[in-house]
């Protein structure tokens, strides 16, 4: 018996350094809110996911390799708290995936050290992290999340800024942070009979430079997404015939904490959106966060200009007024009102250019216009 105890003690002492070098965490977000009003003119009453942050379950860890070098990994699954199902991450990358939607928020492995971090997998593009300049932190109730998603801009806190088959770099050096990413897209091989298509025709790339020092935050982001129409069997596949350009997006943002309030703003532009020549989208937003008692009043106004290749321009606008209050370090409640006016864009125009995925029963052959979105909301978020 003593020999067995001694052997176990020796094994335990040998294993201890291995466990000490390795660290794995389970983390997540549970965020749900009730909303009541109208969505693009249709009556709305529902429990929805992610008013402040999308619900998720994740696993992350690192191993100390010595000499300041660490191996890291992250696997993150999104889920819809209103149904309990895995969240389908809409957008070109997720739509091209086969299989389940597990870990479609992020999934990567990499190395980090004093030089920063280099990682491989499905990852956030730099444009996902524009939340320092948004009073609603990229939440779905804010104007930025609403209008950038509607306008097809890839610099946004949602699925268009999650890229498959990518290599990314992130580094922070005192007050300056740098990020860069290259994605091979979803078509990595050049198949026989592809009619001039090559594997680089859906590549993506992006860079960002940020400054964060005391009350001041500044940032600039650029992203490019290639589109290529492929002709086969007498028709175009992958995308319509007129989607053959590289969408180019850029953003500048700033925020300053005056003590009594934090004021922030951003401007971004997308050229050849969805790969359509001369379909350009501009978006700007101003906002503020004002501490009041135990919580914060948040307000933001944003406006978009959609410059279509033919026909009139449209200027959707959005406004949100909200209040958030922390109940603890991990739990908060929020309430507010959100409004978006689509500037009488016809349903046929919105569907034809890709601004909506479906007409939701509305006519696209007659000049039926999109009505506004207007709803009150109340919700709760818990981080674990």
Characterization of this structure:
The structure is a single chain. With 384 residues, this protein is mainly beta. The chain has a single domain (34-383), classed as Porin (Beta Barrel), CATH 2.40.160.10. Helix content is 10%, strand content 50%. The chain is built from four helices and 19 strands. The protein has helices at residues 2-21, 92-96, 143-150, 347-353; strands spanning 22-39, 42-49, 56-66, 69-78, 106-113, 116-124, 162-173, 176-183, 204-213, 216-226, 230-232, 235-237, 246-257, 262-271, 280-292, 295-307, 317-326, 331-341, 373-383. The strands form two sheets. A 16-stranded antiparallel barrel has the order 1-3-4-5-6-7-8-9-10-13-14-15-16-17-18-19. The protein has a two-stranded antiparallel ribbon with strand order 11-12. The protein is globular. Residues 3-20 have low confidence and may be disordered. Keywords: Cell outer membrane, Ion transport, Membrane, Porin, Signal, Transmembrane, Transmembrane beta strand, Transport. It is found in: Cell outer membrane. Its main location: membrane. Residues 1-20 form the signal peptide.
């Amino acid at each position: 018996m003593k020999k067995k105890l001694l052997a176990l003690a020796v094994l335990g002492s040998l294993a201890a350094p291995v466990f000490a070098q390795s660290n794995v965490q389970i983390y997540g977000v549970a965020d749900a809110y009730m909303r009541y009003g109208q969505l693009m003119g249709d009556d709305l009453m529902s429990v929805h996911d992610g008013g402040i942050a999308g619900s998720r379950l994740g696993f992350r860890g690192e191993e100390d390799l010595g000499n300041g070098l660490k191996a890291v990994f992250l696997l993150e699954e999104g889920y819809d708290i209103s149904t309990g199902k895995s969240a389908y991450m809409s957008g070109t990358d997720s739509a091209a995936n086969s299989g389940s939607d597990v870990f479609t928020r992020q999934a990567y492995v990499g190395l980090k050290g004093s030089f920063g971090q280099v990682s491989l997998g499905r990852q956030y593009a730099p444009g996902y992290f524009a939340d320092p300049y948004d009073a609603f932190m990229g939440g779905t109730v804010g104007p930025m999340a609403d209008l950038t998603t509607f306008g097809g801009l890839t610099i946004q806190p949602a699925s268009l800024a999650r890229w498959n088959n990518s290599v990314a770099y992130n580094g922070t050096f005192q007050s300056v942070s740098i990020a860069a990413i290259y994605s091979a897209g979803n078509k990595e091989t050049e198949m026989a009979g592809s009619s001039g298509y090559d594997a680089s025709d859906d590549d993506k790339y992006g860079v960002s430079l940020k400054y964060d020092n005391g009350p001041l935050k500044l940032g600039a982001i650029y992203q490019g997404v290639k589109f290529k129409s492929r002709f086969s069997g007498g028709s175009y596949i992958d995308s319509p015939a007129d989607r053959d350009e590289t969408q180019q997006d850029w953003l500048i943002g700033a925020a300053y904490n005056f003590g009594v309030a934090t004021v922030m703003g951003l401007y971004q532009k997308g050229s050849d959106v969805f790969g359509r020549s001369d379909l350009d989208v501009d978006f700007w937003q101003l906002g503020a966060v004002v501490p009041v008692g135990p919580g914060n009043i948040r307000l933001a106004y944003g406006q978009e200009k959609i410059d279509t290749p033919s026909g009139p321009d449209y200027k959707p606008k959005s406004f949100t007024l909200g209040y958030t209050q922390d109940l603890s370090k991990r739990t908060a409640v929020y309430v507010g009102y959100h409004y978006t006016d689509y500037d009488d864009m016809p349903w046929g125009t919105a569907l034809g250019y890709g601004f909506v995925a479906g007409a939701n029963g509305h006519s696209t052959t007659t000049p039926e216009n999109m009505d506004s979105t207007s709803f009150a909301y109340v919700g709760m978020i818990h981080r674990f």
